[in-house]
Input
Amino acid sequence: MLVCNPYEIVIHGTTGNGKVFRPSDWAERLCGILSSFDKGNRLSYHEWVRPILVDKVRCVAVDKKLEEINPPMFRFLMDFAADNDLRVMDCKTLIDEQAQEEAGAVQERVSLSQAIQEKQAAEQQAAAVEAAPVESVLREIGADDTAVAFAALSILRSGITDVARFVEQVNTQQRPQGYRLFGIFEEGKANAVAVCGFREQTNLAGGRHIHIDDIVTIPHGRSKGYAARLLAEVRRIAAEEGIDKIQVWSDVGSERTPAHRLYFENGFEIDAFHFSCKING
Output
């Protein structure tokens, strides 16, 4: 049974076209932004932002008080939902919706042929909407706008859970080292749907080159060519600067196959092993 109160807003883990949002732990990650550890070193979610399950679908309940107490964080959560096409509703609406489903409230029965026709029409309409071109713009993300890259990069880097710390690290540590961020923004969305972070480096092994640290597209924006557009922009910048090599490290494993395919399709080759050594204590 759904447990929430009338003062909460629910970010539902399904998109506008009915697909379950991924990754599967997105709700815990999002709530982790405001979480902390108690005296027993156990993770404790904030009283106003918590993960919940609705019919086995992961969701996030946000207390409306957050809008008054921490407006930037409330706006970020709402922007995250909008940018990822997630359903947002108040708790009462969600409870009423569930009650109707459980009671099987049906006003009239339709014939099987009519039901099939309606289903096919809905699928065709959904396909047409999904296939329709979306206006988007590619631009550099400046230091005063770093937070707009957080939603995408937090999917790629699961250790990133705090938007304030993310902005501080990028602006105070990485940007002084030459780190630059580029993003693709769809019309009507505040946060970047695809992000690429890179820097120029010079060393004895590779000479002068561009190293790509991060490249990611949020789930609903994939298969639109955004990552390839970002790589093309990096190549353009490299050519303008007289740099003839771009490098990127990519982990191995079957889950990384789409990333490897992206690099191969955009002119990258495997030319080295990457070794690392963890130092304990």
Remarks:
- The domain at 136-265 is CATH 3.40.630.30 (Aminopeptidase).
- The chain has nine helices and eleven strands.
- The two ends are 45 Å apart (CA to CA).
- The chain has a mean pLDDT of 83.
